[in-house]
């Protein structure tokens, strides 16, 4: 395998999320998934740094750049795994978390300036939610750095951008439907509300009103079942690199339900 394509970062996020999901029930499998994800994450980073000229050219495409939010998201989740295997060296895990967190914000700023600024805006796609709402992973993993204010800021940011982006994406896709190569991005629809629900439970805990939980559960599950109805159409198009968008949305739905069970 000479080169992992940029879209593979979605698979890295899926591995990280699956490892986190199975921690309590299947610890050996959880360790295997997380370790595989961590090794591939580091390999992915080094590989694209050494071929930066080519990678930089690929990142001029809006769908690819917006989808790259999955890479720092995976890094923040994997940092919790690093802390579990090196509990006496918290600086290693925290260093990975801060690197991923700041990289996520950098991607948001760069993408906004290049492709989302009002006078330059291109047609939005579901991958925009990965970039702008995915930062809420920081609220899910904030205990590693112990700064709850970060959780509040990223959670509020995620909520605001969710309610802004969904109508925008719907409007743009009515005029300019997704090309077949990007159709798998429809799987992303169920990720934002599931991620926000899991992060909300992590931050709010028992203080959350029941009606808030009910609304969030209904929203996340509704989009999950919507994605299930779209899967046959996505799969019949044949394999596409954009299939890497499918793992984490379904895993994030499961993580949200797991958080509710623990709640």
From TrEMBL:
<feature type="transmembrane region" description="Helical">
    <location>
        <begin position="28"/>
        <end position="52"/>
    </location>
</feature>
<keyword id="KW-0812">Transmembrane</keyword>
<dbReference type="GO" id="GO:0005886">
    <property type="term" value="C:plasma membrane"/>
</dbReference>
<dbReference type="InterPro" id="IPR038665">
    <property type="entry name" value="Voltage-dep_anion_channel_sf"/>
</dbReference>
<feature type="transmembrane region" description="Helical">
    <location>
        <begin position="208"/>
        <end position="228"/>
    </location>
</feature>
<feature type="transmembrane region" description="Helical">
    <location>
        <begin position="95"/>
        <end position="117"/>
    </location>
</feature>
<feature type="transmembrane region" description="Helical">
    <location>
        <begin position="64"/>
        <end position="83"/>
    </location>
</feature>
<feature type="transmembrane region" description="Helical">
    <location>
        <begin position="129"/>
        <end position="145"/>
    </location>
</feature>
<dbReference type="InterPro" id="IPR052951">
    <property type="entry name" value="Tellurite_res_ion_channel"/>
</dbReference>
<keyword id="KW-0472">Membrane</keyword>
<dbReference type="InterPro" id="IPR004695">
    <property type="entry name" value="SLAC1/Mae1/Ssu1/TehA"/>
</dbReference>
<protein>
    <submittedName>
        <fullName>Putative C4-dicarboxylate transporter</fullName>
    </submittedName>
</protein>
<dbReference type="GO" id="GO:0046583">
    <property type="term" value="F:monoatomic cation efflux transmembrane transporter activity"/>
</dbReference>
<dbReference type="Pfam" id="PF03595">
    <property type="entry name" value="SLAC1"/>
</dbReference>
<keyword id="KW-1133">Transmembrane helix</keyword>
<feature type="transmembrane region" description="Helical">
    <location>
        <begin position="181"/>
        <end position="202"/>
    </location>
</feature>
């Amino acid at each position: 395998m000479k080169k992992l394509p940029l879209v593979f970062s979605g698979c890295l996020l899926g591995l990280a999320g699956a490892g986190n999901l199975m921690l309590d029930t299947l610890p050996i499998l959880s360790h295997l998934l997380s370790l595989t994800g961590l090794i591939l994450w580091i390999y992915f980073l080094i590989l694209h740094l050494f071929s930066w000229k080519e990678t930089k050219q690929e990142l001029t495409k809006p769908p690819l750049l917006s989808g790259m939010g999955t890479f720092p998201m995976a890094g923040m989740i994997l940092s919790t795994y690093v802390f579990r295997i090196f509990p006496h060296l918290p600086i290693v895990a925290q260093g990975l978390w801060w690197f991923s967190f700041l990289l996520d914000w950098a991607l948001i700023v760069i993408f906004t300036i290049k492709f989302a600024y009002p006078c330059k805006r291109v047609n939005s796609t579901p991958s925009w939610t990965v970039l702008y709402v995915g930062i809420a992973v920081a609220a899910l993993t904030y205990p590693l750095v112990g700064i709850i204010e970060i959780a509040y800021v990223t959670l509020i940011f995620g909520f605001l951008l969710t309610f802004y982006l969904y109508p925008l994406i719907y409007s743009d896709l009515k005029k300019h439907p997704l090309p077949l190569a990007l159709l798998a991005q429809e799987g992303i629809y169920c990720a934002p509300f599931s991620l926000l629900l899991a992060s909300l439970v992590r931050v709010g805990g028992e203080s959350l009103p029941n009606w808030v939980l009910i609304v969030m559960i209904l929203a996340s599950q509704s989009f999950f079942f919507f994605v299930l109805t779209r899967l046959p159409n996505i799969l019949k198009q044949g394999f596409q690199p954009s299939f890497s968008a499918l793992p984490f949305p379904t895993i994030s739905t499961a993580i949200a339900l797991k958080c509710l069970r623990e709640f």
